[in-house]
From TrEMBL:
Top-rank taxon, per record: Bacteria
Entry's Gene Ontology molecular function annotations: transferase activity
Keywords assigned by UniProt, alphabetized: Transferase
PANTHER family per the UniProt record, alphabetical: GLUTAMYL-TRNA(GLN) AMIDOTRANSFERASE SUBUNIT A, TRANSAMIDASE
Species for this entry: Zemynaea arenosa
Protein name: Asp-tRNA(Asn)/Glu-tRNA(Gln) amidotransferase GatCAB subunit A
Length: 163
């Protein structure tokens, strides 16, 4: 499953060849087995609840375009159900009362959140070595950095632990 594109995953879900719960569980297992420090926050229960809701919408023929497709959000985008730290211990326990517009739009399209991705503190860096929660490792060379303040995102996609 982890070699498929978003478009392919969406088609498999719509054809009912795979369920969102199966797909989400697959990615959560890959995340748990990873040693890249790409994810800061994962909540399996919350992700699977979203996946069950997506499966119900698909079964009812009411699923939006990306219903059931997993996604992960860089930890600078505020989320009402997940902690948002922006890579800083100053915000270690912050949970926003609302979702960022992009998060809301993706949820409205039916996507299932796998978790929040590591980033340089306040997204101010170019190597992803300045997160208060530890540097992200490059999946192709763990002695190298994945680069950019979006290193968690880059590493997660490169390692195929998130689509």
């Amino acid at each position: 499953m982890h070699t498929k594109s978003l478009k392919e995953l969406s088609a498999l879900l719509r054809a009912k060849e795979v369920s969102s719960v199966e797909l989400t569980t697959h990615y959560l297992s890959r995340i748990a087995a990873s040693d890249l420090n790409a994810f800061l926050h994962v909540d399996e229960e919350l992700s699977l609840a979203q996946a069950r809701a997506a499966d119900a919408a698909i079964a009812a023929g009411a699923g939006p375009a990306l219903a059931g497709v997993p996604i992960a959000h860089k930890d600078i985008f505020v989320t009402r159900d997940w902690r948002t730290t922006a890579g800083s211990k100053m915000l270690a326990n912050y949970v926003s009362p609302f979702d960022a517009t992009i998060v809301s739009n993706l949820a409205g399209a039916g996507m299932v959140t796998l978790g929040k991705l590591n980033c340089d503190e306040y997204a101010m860096g170019s190597a992803n070595e300045n997160s208060a929660f530890g540097a992200v490792k490059n999946p192709w060379d763990k002695a190298a950095v994945p680069g950019g303040s979006s290193g968690g995102s880059a590493a997660a996609v490169a390692a195929r632990i998130a689509p």
